Amino acid sequence: MKTVTVDYGLYSVIEETAKSLYIKALKDLPPDVRQALQNAYEIEEEENPKKILSTMLEAIKISDNKQCLLCQDTGIPLYFIKIGSRLNIDIPRLQKAIIRGTERATVEHPLRSSVCHPIKRTNHQTSTGYRIPLINLDFVEDGDNLEILMVPKGSGSENMSFLKMLIPAEGIRGVKKFIIDSVLEAGANPCPPFVIGVGLGGTSDLCVKLAKLAAVTRPLDSRHEDPDIAALEEELLEAVNQLGIGPMGLGGKTTALALNIEYAYTHITQNPVAVNIQCWPARRARAKIDVNGKVEFGY
Amino acid sequence: MAEYRLTTPLSEEEVRKLKIGDTVFLEGTIFGIRDANLIRIFENNVPPPVDFTGAACIHTAPNVRKVNGGYEKVCIGTTTSSRMDRFTPGLMGKYGVRAIIGKAGMMEASMEAMKKYGGCYLAIVGGAASWETEKIQAIEGVWWEDLMPEAIWKFRVKDFGPLIVAMDAEGNNMYYQIKARAREKLADIYKRLGI
């Protein structure tokens, strides 16, 4: 197999890209999210939810025109990285470049730093700290690109996260009930209409991670490739919207813009389910860096 | 559902007229408050440095830029209100606050205070900080800068809305009503899902 040796200059490209992605994610909402909000506005009939959705659409327009942040919560910075297997890349150096890019976005833009020590509550004002930003590494067979997906995860929605280690006897019925009950409990807090991420199977930690992946990495108009999972996504999305929590929890037809599921095999004695919620500004920004350091931005 | 255009400071009479579902647009000034400054007022017993009589207070910690001794807005958005529930009785009863502007609603302590003193909760669209920043004309004052960004802020506003009355002085709470309605639908939803 051919190995591509990465030029030293690539790490400064990665740093610049990590910086740009954080700022871009906070300002430029992905097209699928815009479309989902527009669709929600169009099907809504009542006055108050219509007013709320129209304010959201107006806020997106203002961010576009003024190049300003859509939401004040800069969140916890998450980076999902896919490394092509043909790239001979120095992982610690890659991680350092991502951290440095996050710090520079926060200081140079400047952005509000929302990251602090869990006990002392001290804030370095850099959006970084021990183990933060969260950097997820993944590897792609035969690839020679580096893909970076950046997600600022806001707190209003993240505070509404749920995990339950059900038993096998509770089956899919227990899973469905837990999802509906969690969404009802979350109510207005995660800024509906939100995106619901569901994790099924795995271990407790993997299950929560799968829910996060489902909530923040997938385009809203995507369906799972497994037809059984896709059908479950559709069935549960419809059920959630029947709750009538509506935009900002003040009633209406759209409580969730999307419901995505990611699963993993689990233990014969386990049946874990997790729910992670993403707020209506479902922010994300993506970049692909090729071996020559050329960067292509997307969502 | 009525629409009101109100100027601050707000009187008890005009706030008691508001019913859940109504829309309000504010003109005048609103005060930015949040966890740290409320803890100082109520847990460290330091009286607020400004007169809150008839005030509308918004739950925020803005992103600002310092210019010529003052502050310029960068990004002002609203945070989840439920963390501040325990402070509403003091704000309304002791200091005369009439309206709380926030997102996702408040609970029993606030509902009781609103009933007793004539107060309301005005829901703003959370996450729409670009829109909110545009609606705020200027930062007119700041107190307790040591708590930055959770200082006390004074913003000048005009045409500040639509804000939806989500909790009124009669003790009605729209969030509770919507959740209660959702609970009524649960049996039917479970049935369809085969639960």
UniProtKB/TrEMBL annotation, chain A:
InterPro entries, sorted: Class-I_Fumarase/Tartrate_DH, Fe-S_hydro-lyase_TtdA-typ_cat
Keywords: 4Fe-4S, Iron, Iron-sulfur, Lyase, Metal-binding
Residues of the Fe-S hydro-lyase tartrate dehydratase alpha-type catalytic domain: 16-287
Example GO molecular function: lyase activity
Family from the record: Belongs to the class-I fumarase family.
Alphabetical list of NCBIfam families matching this protein: PRK06246.1, ttdA_fumA_fumB
Name of the protein: Fe-S type, tartrate/fumarate subfamily hydro-lyase subunit alpha
Source species: Calderihabitans maritimus
UniProtKB/TrEMBL annotation, chain B:
InterPro entries, alphabetized: Fe-S_hydro-lyase_TtdB-typ_cat, Fe-S_hydroAse_TtdB_cat_sf
GO molecular function list: hydro-lyase activity
SUPFAM superfamilies membership: FumA C-terminal domain-like
Claim: Transmembrane is one of the keywords in the record: no
Protein name: Fe-S type, tartrate/fumarate subfamily hydro-lyase subunit alpha
Protein's organism: Calderihabitans maritimus
Similarity remark: Belongs to the class-I fumarase family.
Sorted UniProt keywords: Lyase
Domain Fe-S hydro-lyase tartrate dehydratase beta-type catalytic, chain residue ranges per copy: 5-177
NCBIfam families per record: ttdB_fumA_fumB
A family per Pfam: Fumerase_C
Lineage: Bacteria, Bacillati, Bacillota, Clostridia, Neomoorellales
Source superkingdom: Bacteria
